[in-house]
Design brief:
By secondary structure, the chain is an alpha+beta fold. The chain has a single domain (31-240), classed as YmcC-like fold (Beta Barrel). Helix content is 17%, strand content 52%. The protein is globular.
C-alpha cells in the first residue's frame, strides 16, 4: 500500500511544480526569449516609457518609444538600429552586444555615417570602477565622437515600473554637469542617444542614473539637480521582446 501512496504523492508534487513554473513563465515580462545581455537587441524589440517632468506646480508627462527597427552587418557582426520616437526618423544610432556588454557602433542618417566601436554599458561590471567610453553625437547633419567615462554604482537596486517591480537592477551613472563643462558636444550626444530632453524647467539635466535590468534593458532614468531634487524620470511602460 505504501508504494501507490508514494507514487500519488510524487505525482501531486510534480503537478504543483509544473503549475508554479507555468505561472512564473506567464508572468515573466521579458517573454519567452532571454538574451543574457544587459540590453537585449533584436529587430522588432521595442521599449515604451512614460516621461515625467517635475516643476513647482507638480509634474507633466509624455511618452517615448525606443525601437530596434533594423540591423546591418559591420565586419561580420550584427549591429542594430537604435531609434527614439522623439527624434528624426532617419536618425539611427548603432549598437551591438558582445561578451563584455553593449557597444556603441556609431550612427547613420540620410546625410552622414560614422562607424566606431566603444563599450557603452559594461556587463558584467565591477561596482564603482569608472571605465572609458565615447559619446556619439549628431549635429549639423554630421556625426562626431567624444571620449567620456561611465560607472556602475549598484547591481542590487529595486525599481518599480508600470510593468512591475524589478530587483537586482544595475544603475549606471553620469555626471552631466562635468560632462557639459568639459565637452558640450559629448553632453548633447549623451542626451540624443538616450532620448532625453535638452532642458527641464529651463535648466539642463544634471546628475543622471540609468537603471537597467538584464534581459530587459533600460527600465528607468532618474535625473536630479545639485540638491538631490528629482526633476525628470523615465519609467518603463511596456516591453516587446521578439523571439529568435
Amino acid at each position: 500500500m505504501k508504494r501507490p501512496v508514494l507514487c500519488l504523492a510524487l505525482a501531486a508534487l510534480i503537478l504543483v511544480v509544473l503549475v508554479a513554473c507555468k505561472k512564473d513563465k506567464d508572468n515573466d515580462p521579458t517573454g519567452p526569449y532571454v538574451s543574457e545581455h544587459i540590453v537585449p537587441l533584436r529587430v522588432g524589440n521595442q521599449w515604451t516609457y512614460v516621461d515625467f517632468f517635475y516643476n513647482r506646480a507638480g509634474r507633466d508627462s509624455s511618452q517615448s518609444v525606443l525601437r530596434n527597427s533594423d540591423s546591418i552587418n559591420i565586419d561580420g557582426e550584427e549591429v542594430f538600429f537604435w531609434n527614439w520616437s522623439n527624434q528624426a526618423e532617419d536618425l539611427n544610432w548603432l549598437v551591438s552586444n558582445r561578451s563584455d556588454g553593449m557597444h556603441t557602433r556609431g550612427g547613420m542618417s540620410s546625410s552622414d555615417t560614422l562607424i566606431v566601436d566603444n563599450l557603452k554599458f559594461k556587463f558584467p561590471v565591477q561596482l564603482n570602477q569608472p571605465y572609458a567610453s565615447r559619446e556619439v553625437t549628431y549635429g549639423s547633419d554630421t556625426f562626431s565622437s567624444y571620449p567620456c567615462n561611465y560607472v556602475c554604482i549598484s547591481n542590487d537596486t529595486t525599481f518599480t515600473t508600470y510593468m512591475g517591480t524589478y530587483h537586482n537592477c544595475y544603475v549606471y551613472t553620469r555626471n552631466l554637469d562635468s560632462l557639459r563643462t568639459v565637452d558640450n558636444n559629448a553632453y548633447h550626444g549623451f542626451l540624443q542617444q538616450h532620448g532625453l530632453p535638452e532642458l527641464v524647467n529651463g535648466r539642463p539635466l544634471s546628475n543622471i542614473r540609468i537603471i537597467c535590468k538584464p534581459n530587459i534593458g533600460y527600465i528607468g532614468y532618474l535625473s536630479y539637480y545639485d540638491n538631490n531634487t528629482l526633476v525628470y524620470e523615465k519609467r518603463l511602460l511596456n516591453f516587446t521582446n521578439v523571439s529568435p
